[in-house]
């Protein structure tokens, strides 16, 4: 058993090259943290047009393998970890959203592209491209890479496989005939393999075929074995038993650092938090919101999706701005939710500001300038926005579910006294519960000393990747050992 492993991460997005959500944050930050621990890590991602442009603009990019119309390009993360981009015409022409067209419908060739990507990952894992680097572990993320453990098993590649579920709600379901179109063997059509509800399921490849399956918090790991959250896969997930492990995400504390954030007007940290006032003033100027010092700035940053409980926010909005408080929203997604928020902003431009865009720098300015962050998610595998918020001294108000339940500590007399309080939690699935909790948070905001203490606790929370990266390293040891034990003799 080697002390350090060669680990190939395979993901459909990676910060800072291409991002639609938390997956990109993790696919960038976890490999970086593992690299710091001494693991030999590479990240394989699709070479979308935009990602290649971004890589070219920021770092050296060169081909390490070439075929007609296809190349494998190499660049590096700021921390030194190598990224390989698989450039094909099918990925290159996706300069916009990686999975959806501008109307929000899935790209028609998603199955073909991500199958091809999985085959390439398998070839890399088998060192079939002459890169003279053979991983011990292949760590695949989310449904887009669900076929990686399948192809690796079919090709008898000896590396151990780990599959991480970042969000079980996205499963990569395609017509059952897709299996045949992709040239995969017929036995995979079985419910014990890739068939799910008369469809072909990419995520079942990861869950059923990987040596170890992980998800991004311990709470969510338990929740997905129940019918309420398991999305029909609870049986398969429960069957994996102790092979299913929850490891909470961290955040990249270099990139999310109010003491060195070029997006902020002034630097601040837990010891000297004064700069947060300047960030708040700048945010108010930028958004045109009118808030006296006694009124909190309450933010929402994230996808406009049912999962995130944005409809509850819309419903509770009138009650929230009656506190008094102002609300700033940054999100993209569901047009119905977008229109409702747009109307609210038009009706009260002094109290509600909403921008419907994916804007990283604005997100940083909001985390810096806001006082509270809302996350009324119906379910939340881990959630990163609340971790970013705490790091910036912005107090999260969250529904008690998944990773939110275990990363935010609710404020009461006991948690305030022992210094563990970092936010506010609520139960229930209705706008009243959210409204009441916002009110509770506003009551605490009015008590200056209490609020200062909360900011201090939140900012000092250790959300770095170190602890989680160590947990993944232990898991790699286990997966590697298990694979050695079960390796067929001819390998
Ligand atoms: P998700 O379910 O979308 O992955 P997470 O909370 O795990 O939710 O991660 C969301 C990440 O994406 C956070 O880093 C958040 O700041 C960022 N994000 C979400 N929406 C936007 C947006 N519209 N503009 C900029 N950043 C965003």
Q: Which secondary structure elements does this structure contain, and how are they paired or packed?
A:
Layout: E1 6-10, H1 22-36, E2 40-46, H2 49-58, E3 62-67, E4 70-76, E5 82-87, H3 89-92, H4 110-125, E6 137-141, H5 147-154, E7 160-165, E8 173-175, H6 178-181, E9 195-196, E10 199-201, H7 202-209, E11 212-215, H8 218-223, H9 234-239, E12 244-246, H10 275-287, E13 297-301, H11 310-321, E14 326-330, H12 335-347, E15 352-355, H13 360-369, E16 372-375, H14 385-391, E17 395-399, H15 402-407, H16 413-417, E18 424-426, H17 431-445, H18 448-460, H19 466-486
Parallel strand pairs: 1-2, 1-6, 2-5, 6-7, 7-11, 11-12, 13-14, 13-16, 14-15, 16-17, 17-18
Antiparallel strand pairs: 3-4, 4-5, 8-10, 9-10
Helix pairs in contact: 1-19, 4-5, 5-7, 10-13, 11-12, 11-17
The structure holds adenosine-5'-diphosphate.
Please outline what is shown here.
39% of the residues lie in helices and 17% in strands. The protein is of the alpha/beta class.
